[in-house]
Amino acid sequence: MFKMIRPPFLKKGDKIGIVAPARKISKEEISFSLKIVGNYGYDVVFNHNLFAEDNQYAGNDELRTNELQQMLDDTSVKAIMFARGGYGTVRIIDHINFNRFIKNPCWLIGYSDITVIHSHVNKNYGVKTLHATMPVNFPENEKGAIESLFSILTGESYNTMFVSNKLNRNGVARGILTGGNLSVLYSLLGSDSFPDTDGKILFLEDLDEYLYHIDRMMMALKRAGKLENLAGILIGGMTKMNDNDIPFGKTAEEIIRDTVAEYNYPVYFGFPSGHINNNIALVMGSEVSITETKNGTITFSYV
Fold first, then answer.
1. Does 147 map to a domain?
2. Amino acid 157: pLDDT
3. CB-CB contact of 125 with 102 (8 Å)
4. Which of 61, 104, 144, 298 has its CA 20 to 30 A from that of 228?
5. What is the CA radius of gyration of the chain?
6. Which of 130, 75, 85 minimizes the C-alpha distance to 107?
7. pTM of the predicted protein model
């Protein structure tokens, strides 16, 4: 097992690159974000292909591969923000060469479809990554989402308190944080990009899924043996869930609770991360602890 490597923290004047490995992005959609990053004291870099279009993608697979490869190979870039998610990162991940990156690792930042990057890099190269808001989301984000992102990048402690949930199975959960978007993780099952979950804390979030499909995905993870030996589960936003005319009969949170009911590890719901405006940043690959305090709130902290 890897001793997880943390990329160097950033200092004022460092370069932050922006790449779009999935859905297309326009300059107008990230203009506000460019100002925010600049206001924090960083130099934003990207090339004109960032705004390429190929139907829904930010250029074809070859172009997106080359764009990400060039940014990973640029040792002057200290962090890479993925412009947005959508779909498409899984199509290029096997064509990326991380040899230069692992010699000079930088922060890889995003969520949703970028779960592919987190899982692949954490598992295969032992480098920590940052599950956090992306430039396309900055205009709608609450202050905490952006502050948590830049606080972690500069090495500031960023522990989080959140509200207890009646569905929780309380206890002290401690382990390496892994996971991300449930739908994306489901698509990685059976591949070298799917994370090792034994002894880990599995974070899950999702958006715009049918409830029966949440059940299907959770059952797939369970049948594949990915849920039985966890140190705990942390559930973020299960946002804008859909149902059929004949109701499924459970919420997404209840589906998850029931899927893991036979196991004994702690399960915590309602962590403020995912497809929500207050998308608190998480360092994937870090050891964390989750516990309930005496006043009924939950504390999430880095060990």
1. yes
2. 81
3. yes
4. 298
5. 18
6. 130
7. 0.97
Name which of 44, 54, 119, 120 is nearest 83 in CA terms: 44
- H helical segments located in the chain: 27-39, 61-73, 99-103, 115-125, 143-153, 182-188, 211-223, 252-259
**pLDDT number for residue 2:** 67
CA dist., res. 63 & res. 50, Å (int):
10
CATH number of the domain residue 129 falls in: 3.40.50.10740
Q: Which structural domain range is residue 92 located in?
A: 15-153
* Domain membership flag for residue 7: no
Domain for residue 10, yes or no? no
CA 275 to the chain's CA centroid = 10
What's the CATH number where 207 sits? 3.50.30.60
Q: What is the number of domains present in the chain?
A: 2
Interatomic CA distance for residues 260 and 223, integer angstroms: 11
- Sheet architecture: strand order including 173-181: 160-163, 297-302, 287-292, 173-181, 201-207, 232-239, 267-268
204 and 251 in a single domain? The answer is yes
Give per-10-residue mean pLDDT for the chain (303 aa): 90 98 97 97 96 98 98 98 98 98 98 98 98 98 97 94 95 97 98 98 98 98 98 98 98 98 98 98 98 90 95
